[in-house]
Amino acid sequence: CHTAALPPRCPPSAVPYEQELVQKRTFTKWINSHLAKRKPPLEVSDLFEDIKDGVKLLALLEVLSGQKLPCEQGRQLKRIHWVSNIGTALKFLEGRRSLYRGSPIKLVNINATDIADGRPSIVLGLIWTIILYFQIEELTSNLPALQALSTSVSSVDSMASSETASPPMKRKVVTKFQGNAKRALLRWVQCTATQRLGVEVKDFGPSWRSGAAFHSVIYAIRPDLVDMELVKRRNNRENLEEAFSLAENQLGIPRLLDPEDVDVDKPDEKSIMTYVAQFLKHYPDPHQSETDGQQEEREERKVLRELKAWLDQLERDILRTQGGEGSPADKYQAFKSFRVQYEMRKKQVESLLQPVHRDDKLSVDQAVVKQVWEQVSVRLLDWHMHLDKSLPGPLGVIGAWLHRAELALREEIPIQQAHEETANIVHRKLDQHKEVLANLEGHRQTFQQIHRDRAVNGVPVPAEQLQDMAERLNYVSTSSHVHIIKLEFWEIKYRLMAFLILAESKLKSWIIKYGRRDSVELLLQNYIVFIEGHKFFEQYETTFQTLKQASDIYVKSDSSAGEREGVSEFLSEATAQWRNLAVEVRSVRSMLEEVITNWEKYSSVVASLQAWLEDAERMLGHPESDKREFFRNLPHWIQQHMDMNDAGNFLIETCDETVSRDLKQQLLLLNGRWRELFVKVKHYARADEVDKLRKDYEDSVLALKIFVETSSERMNAPVQVSFLNIRTFLQDIEDIKQKGPSMEAVYKAATRHAQQLTKDTPEEEVTEMLTAMATIKEELSKVEQVLPVLRDSQALLPLLEEMEKHITGFYQALEKASRITSARDSDTPGDFKLKCQELVTYQQSCKKCLTVIDKNHQIILKALESSKTLRHLDTSLLQKRVGELQAMVKETTEWKKHMEANSSLLKRFEESRVELEKVLKLAQGSMTERGNPEELLKKHTEFFGHLDQRVLNAFLKACDELTDILPEQEQQNLQETVRKLHKQWKDVQSEIPYRLLGLKVEVERGRLMASMQECQAELARENRSLPNMGSERLVKEHRAFFREKGPQALCEKRLQHMEELHGKLADSEQARQSLDSARTAFAELRDEIESTHQKLMQHPDKWKEFNTRFSELSAWLISKESQLRLLRNRAGDPSNFSQVKSTIEEGNMGWLKSRLAVLIEICTEGDAQRQAAALSKLSTDFKSLLTSLSESEKVILAVGDCVQFQEEVRNSLKELMEGQQELQSEATKILNSERAREAQQLQLIHQQQLKRLRLKQRDMRQQLGRGQQLQMEEGLGEGLQEDLYKLETALDKMDHSLEAQEQSLQVTLAAWQEFDSQQAAVGEFVSRARSVTDREMTFSSPESLATELEQAKVTSRTEVKQVDTLLKKAAEIQLGPKNEFLLQNQARSLSEQMDKVETGLEKE
């Protein structure tokens, strides 16, 4: 597994549209340059479309690899075959190995379904991967010089930009072979071309825009082709065009780029790399740059060795400074100095430790430097942790926690191959980090207090170290929340990625070449269980929505644009990937069901067809009649045969090779038998067809004959001209017209059936059929003349309709006029005038209708005379009706003259009468009108003021004039009408004043009621608002509303005015009742106002807050008195006294006093006196509490010093025990050392620790003295006396044990050192003795030889004694458990060596 923040699992990111077009053109040209080598050659015109079926993709890989790959081909390939071809190509690529890494090629986020969909970013990513592996890497790796260049440390950026996948989170995404391939190609350009000509090339982007870089590469291959001076003078487009033309024409390099592709702000680097890599094939001598790479490698080794020496020295300095003496502040300052040196070298070390081998392994020098660098890192971290843990008290705990928290924040997540495992790891890390960060708030509060005090329990803390811890704690505080959110987002993200991987794997297992029906049914069952049983689509929606919510929170917490863009891109790409996957997964079921359906169809049809073929083959020997009857249903078996072939061909395309081969053989056999049989019996297939054709022919002829007969009858029958008859006739003609096209179709069908029957029908019958068809054709042609009839009839219909309408109007007007002329005697003059007017109107209406009728009648007659198609229409009835109408008009003219004579007088009388009645009606209506009194008073005053006597006089004059011309009976009626109207006029004049007074009373009453309603509304509001607003505010509002000049006073004034108006009126029961009701309502209102005021004054809610505060203060006083009594009884525990004191001092009675002063104004007198007395008593109790507090403080403060000192004694005792244990472990470590010299070095550190412990002992002795002083001054509790005794006892014991331990350690180390020196001396003697016995001695005489041997024996005996002494000392010296037998083994080894020496001397 790798270690990174996030793996590149999201789909490839889409490049900008312009770069996408450039890549598409470049990659298409590159593919075509290779497909042209194929036989037969192929060509790609649209990359995204042509690659969908995978055929040309496999052809490209065959050309590049030289291998033959299986491919599904055909004109009707389905999507399943596309996906299969693309899957074959991807599997082939994944089986290849990288020339740089040696590991298989990894296709990240490239799926067969995406290629089949033609997704641009995925297609371009796949082609780029092929170019990278099969061209760029292959060509660069074949250059010996570039093997060093491509693996050396370079300033060139990694190939992160060349990845097709955009990393959704921060991570190290350096695909090694891509980085190496790009660096190798760039270094080749720099070393062989551009550096020699002074052209600077930093990348494969803007550096190539001017075209000079392309010319420098061509110059390196063929110097005679390029004039660099001319290149410098030309513009970009000209240089690019010239370079591409030279490369194509002179070097044979395909032109993959155009000048406009490169002459842009950000040229596409993949396209340029693809083009430039082609020049590697033509480079003449790649070995010239080999020495440059070797020189750089030597320089790099030198730098690594210098860095290793610096790191060794840094580690020694750290050890020396860490073990030396100094204050904590000095130690921390020294640590920071070393840390700064470490950080300054960090970038250089990281760049130098990049792998240099193809297998990502480090060189020997790099491995050594990396080991030392990690040792220094660990040493600094341990020292930092020790410094933080050594801080006094809780600050040391905070320091240790801070290191754990920082480790949790910077800990990287190990990315596993399986995303589900990664999600589980993230989940576990999330729980661990939450557990660590749970203590953040507590530690922060403690640290803030220490930071303010700059000390821990009086012990000062190094300011710089404290400030650094504050910054680190602030970083942890600000980063922890974001870190937790990030881990939660990662967990959900990896869950989703694992889900998508699972979906893809399942999809691959379903999109396969299928087997027999049972295996397909099993596959479908597996699909249903997985999709429906696991709720596949619902599970994705749930996971995605959770991820979306987590991503929103994560993006809001991390404001970096890169993170927002990465998360957004991942979500969009994951959505797109899921969209494609969902479509594919859903289509799997339909595909499987289609395969099963075809299996069912194929199996059933094959079985039935085989049985029928056997019966048909036997039937061939039977008589003709039997064969004709048997093969009557041959068309059915033809369809069955076609269905069998369709299902079989579908199964052959979708099933695996074995099943397809069996199906092909079975179909071949059945089709052969079918062909042999069908040739012999195909003529029987038409028997049923002929019968059906004959029946269809006869049905068509019958239908045509019926239509022709019916149409002729309707068109030629006589018709009387009227609106209804012509409309019915027109409908019949319209029906014939609509049936015409269908009958024409029937005729054509009958003709077609007759022609088809000619082959199977006798000649006489054929002649008869043709004759019948000719007759029907002639009749149909006559029927087709219906259009002129239809047109002429439609022209008559509007005229007849208008005539019918006016004839009806004529009769209606004539009937009304007849009723008027028959009733000549009228009851009143008004009726007489009205009848005259009506008669004139009806006469005019009759004349108008008759004019229109005559006009239309003449038009119709002319139209019928001129029409050749409507000769059968009869107009006699129409003419008769018109004549009758003309005769009827004459009857209405006789009475007209009589009516006109008296119309003027009658008109004048009627007008004056109507005017008078109108005035009287308005006046009477005003007397009884009901409504708003104010509006009525204003309206009636104005109306009665303008009432005019002239209206009555005009009426009386018109009446006198009319009386002279009327009969006697009508005159009496007229006089009666005049008397009645005159009496009404007088009655109105007498009632007007009383009506106006009554309205004034009603107006005042309405105003009184309105004021009273306003008061009642206020009272209702006060009662309604009492539970919510409280009585205090409502009392104030009540008094303000019902003040002296308020609505209540206004009501009294208006009631008085009503009484005055009532006195002017005559006895009116209605007015008296109105006044009494107003008086009663006002009295009730006064009582209600007073009762509401009393209710508000007496309501207890205004005292609620006061009583609550009063009760709280009373309870508070009681609790504080109890606390003070308890503190006085427990004077040895003063920890809570300051809190009790501060709360008592904060007590205040001012609010209650001021509140009482306010409430007295709005309450009853009894409530005010009662509350004042209670408050006075409470004030007295509060003063007593303050006096008790002062007395208790004196007692508590005397004990505080003792309690604090007790805590210091306990902490000192704990530190003393820990120091002693640490010293003992250090002593054990010294005695467990492998050598005496190492033990002496550790003893120096041990002595420093012992010295610090002695200083602590001295401080603790001083604490004992201070404790004795406190005991004399204030007295100590039993617990503190016990702690002092324990401390003193521990100090005494420690003095004795430390002294004994130190002496024993010094004696042991001195003995060990003496043992080592003696051991060395004996070892030196053994070495000399061996050299003496081993060499060939030269001597002048036997005497000298004997002397020399004797001297050696004497020395040997001395050394033997020395060895015996060493054996005794080895047994006496007591080292640690690990070295218990170390010295004894060494002594025995020396003894054995001495024995060998003595034996050798004896032999000599």
Mean pLDDT: 77
Shape summary:
flat
The radius of gyration is 61 Å
Low-confidence stretches: 1-15, 144-179, 286-290, 824-829, 1335-1340
Provide the β-strand percentage band: under 5%
> Helix segment count?
48
* Quaternary form: single chain
Distance between the termini: 68 Å
Q: What's the total count of β strands?
A: 6
Outline the structure in words.
By secondary structure, this protein is mainly α. It is built from 48 helices and 6 strands. The strands form 3 sheets. It has a two-stranded antiparallel ribbon. Strand 3 (about 455) and strand 4 (about 460) form a beta hairpin. Helix 8 (about 175-195) crosses helix 9. The longest helix is centred in the last third of the chain and has 67 residues, at about 1165-1230. The two termini are about 70 Å apart. Residues about 1-15, about 145-180, about 285-290, about 825-830 and about 1335-1340 have low confidence and may be disordered.
Spell out the blueprint of helices and strands.
Blueprint lengths: L1 E2 L13 H19 L11 H4 L4 H11 L13 H17 L16 H5 L3 H22 L2 H6 L26 H22 L14 H10 L6 H6 L2 H15 L8 H4 L6 H8 L13 H34 L4 H25 L11 H26 L4 H17 L3 E2 L3 H19 L2 H14 L1 E2 L2 E2 L2 H48 L6 H17 L2 H22 L3 H59 L4 H7 L3 H21 L2 H25 L5 H30 L2 E2 L2 H35 L5 H21 L2 H37 L6 H38 L6 E2 L1 H13 L7 H6 L1 H26 L4 H13 L4 H14 L4 H62 L1 H11 L5 H18 L4 H30 L5 H26 L7 H9 L4 H11 L4 H67 L4 H38 L4 H57 L7 H31 L9 H22 L1
Parallel strand pairs: 5-6
Antiparallel strand pairs: 1-2, 3-4
